[in-house]
Amino acid sequence: MAMLALVTGLSSTAWAQTAPEPRTLPNGKTWTFDADAGRDIMRTCAACHGEFGEGGGGGVYPRISGLHPEYIAEQLRAFKSRSRENIPMIPYANDRELPEKDVLDVAYYLASITPPRHPPADDIAMDAYERLKLAKQAVQIPLQPGDVAAGKALFNADCMECHGRDGQGRVKKPPLAQQHMPYLRTQVGLFLSGQRQHEDVDELMRPKSAKNWEDLWAYISTLDD
Ligand code: HEC
Ligand code: HEC
Q: Is the pTM of this model over 0.85?
């Protein structure tokens, strides 16, 4: 897989390429990462988030592949405790359906998938199954209208510190690059209305005009190119 990523040259940052340390679960048992269990759990998520966590519903369902594993786990716990409201996921994210062991297995499984930025080019030799798999995993964000240079200036001033240079994200800070635009736009609406929490929303988000947002999205939509 590492070779393939090199050959196609299309991958973005990957977290969790080494096996995570075992840890003690709330029930006292020891968790060690079980990638097969993670893949099995992902079947129940695939209807909305896609087979490989690439996102779906025209970008309403976020890409969850290649995110930082501890960010994924934290969001799943927030859905379970309802501190982050997510009505579609209520039947899937509760203690019975998704105990802590499953949270960790699916989080580390998803983190191990690096979504390519493009489907593999036709002239790269690979077997048909691998080609299909990479094409399904690919996440490419359509360019958004707006002033890219102005958006970049806003991003570097207000967002880069946490979301990383080029929007790749950091530990427990989600990427904005290569994430679906309808989802990101919805999240900003939720932050502004207080339905989801974001640091310093009154300083970072509330003062921005509609044009500022268009420019930010225009810039962010270029980051996976
Ligand atoms: C019925 C559809 C549906 C299913 C099934 C589903 N999800 Fe989701 N998921 C959503 C929606 C909708 C959101 C976005 C909610 C919002 O707007 O805040 C989301 C958000 C997320 C996020 C947050 C992403 C981010 O960037 O913050 C994670 C992580 C996630 N889902 C993981 C999972 C996992 C793991 C499963 C399977 C156990 C799953 N989901 C099953 C609909 C679904
Ligand atoms: C002080 C750190 C910090 C700064 C600065 C910051 N963010 Fe965030 N952002 C976060 C964290 C942490 C989260 C995840 C919140 C959570 O845990 O639910 C987040 C989440 C988001 C999300 C949702 C992503 C997802 O996958 O669900 C969007 C959209 C977002 N931020 C946009 C922005 C924009 C635009 C800026 C600049 C105007 C910005 N943020 C600046 C820390 C920051």
A: yes
Protein residue with least CA distance to atom 6, ligand 2: 159
| CATH number given to 148-220 | 1.10.760.10
Domain range annotation of the chain: 7-111, 148-220
Tens digit of each residue's pLDDT (9 = 90 or more) over 22-75? 999 999 999 999 999 999 999 999 999 999 999 999 999 999 999 999 999 999
Q: What's the 110 CA to ligand 2 centre distance in angstroms?
A: 20
Cα 40 off chain centre by: 19
Question: Which ligand 1 atom lies nearest to the CA of residue 67?
Answer: 26
Q: Which is it for strands 30-31 and 23-24: parallel, antiparallel or unpaired?
A: antiparallel
